[in-house]
Design goal:
The chain is α/β, with parallel strands linked by helices. The chain is built from eleven helices and seven strands. It has helices at 4-19, 30-43, 59-72, 86-89, 95-113, 134-140, 146-149, 154-163, 189-204, 234-246, 266-280, and strands at 22-25, 47-53, 75-80, 119-120, 210-215, 218-223, 251-254. Strands 3-2-1-4 form a four-stranded parallel sheet, sandwiched between helices. The protein has a three-stranded mixed sheet with strand order 5-6-7, covered by helices on one side. α5 (95-113) runs parallel beside α6 (134-140). The longest helix is centred in the middle third of the chain and has 19 residues, at 95-113. The radius of gyration is 20 Å and the shape is globular.
């Protein structure tokens, strides 16, 4: 039996205990849910969880966060943010940086009001492998990433979550709704709500891992590669097409290769490569 995840978990508990008290930035995802469990185990009532409720976080994720907080016994605070900051709405490639700076700034402020100076985020060791400008914001705000510090990978976090009975252990990967809209296309609450409804429809149809990417009037569906076969059914195609069009999309398309993390970064990376190649000529 591989005891490395257990050793890393003990290291995680030690890192958290050293802080004395902490607030977990809690999205309801796999990583932050596990971090809530660990923080509650290490710090007891000196740990709290804070969720920023914004148009970019689906209602289903908020409900999941509430359920996990109840299960692990951690105090859960909701911060309501109904507006989208203009720098975020402009949707530059650094959007995640601006968003995290604002989101974690609000969490830090709420934590300090309760006498807590340490804010924790759930990024893990695997998160260093993709384009993630939000990590820069966390560093600037001195947010502590204990899962990375303990060298825990996503697979190990899932396995430990399963052992400790967390309902999120096999939850599909998730990112905020803004990640469904290509860089440079302005984000607004209407587009985000349309995407949320479309993804709710896929969930209701029984799909587990999916994204609905919004390209103007086009909805581009991505599902896990092993779920694509379900589209070889005319009634499924017709029903989903009609449902998504009822939300305001004019066209509904399917990504033939299926879902892959970071798919929306392809256009930016391709553009960056083309510029580098032209510069080299």
């Amino acid at each position: 039996m591989n005891d490395e995840p257990d050793a890393k978990y003990r290291r995680l508990l030690s890192l958290l205990a050293e802080r004395g008290s902490a607030a977990v930035a809690f999205s309801g995802g796999v990583d932050s849910s596990f971090l809530c469990h660990a923080a509650a185990a290490a710090l007891g009532d000196k740990a709290i969880a804070i969720t920023v409720v914004s148009p970019m976080l689906p209602k289903s994720e908020i409900e999941c966060a509430r359920e996990v907080a109840r299960k692990v016994g951690i105090e859960h605070i909701l911060i309501e943010e109904s507006e989208i900051d203009d720098e975020v709405a402009a949707n530059p490639k650094e959007r995640c940086y601006f968003c995290k700076k604002l989101e974690f700034g609000a969490i830090l402020e709420a934590a300090k009001k309760r006498g807590i100076n340490t804010v924790l985020d759930g990024s893990n060791l695997d998160d260093l492998g993709d384009y993630r400008p939000g990590l820069k914001a966390l560093a600037e705000l001195h947010v502590f990433s204990p899962l990375r510090e303990a060298a825990l990978t996503k697979a190990e976090i899932r396995e430990l979550s399963r052992r400790y009975g967390l309902p999120t252990w096999d939850k599909p990967a998730f990112a905020c709704l803004a990640s469904r809209i290509p860089y440079g296309e302005r984000i607004d609450t209407v587009k985000l709500a349309r995407v949320e409804k479309a993804e709710d429809a896929l969930r209701a149809a029984g799909f587990r891992q999916f994204r609905v990417r919004s390209h103007g009037d086009i909805a581009r569906i991505e599902v896990a590669p092993d779920e694509r076969r379900r589209f070889f059914d005319e009634s499924t195609l017709d029903a989903l097409s009609q449902t998504l069009k009822s939300f305001g999309f004019l066209y509904v398309a399917l990504e033939l290769e299926g879902y892959a993390m970071g798919n929306m970064n392809r256009a930016w990376k391709s553009q960056k490569t083309s510029v580098s190649e032209r510069s080299a000529i």
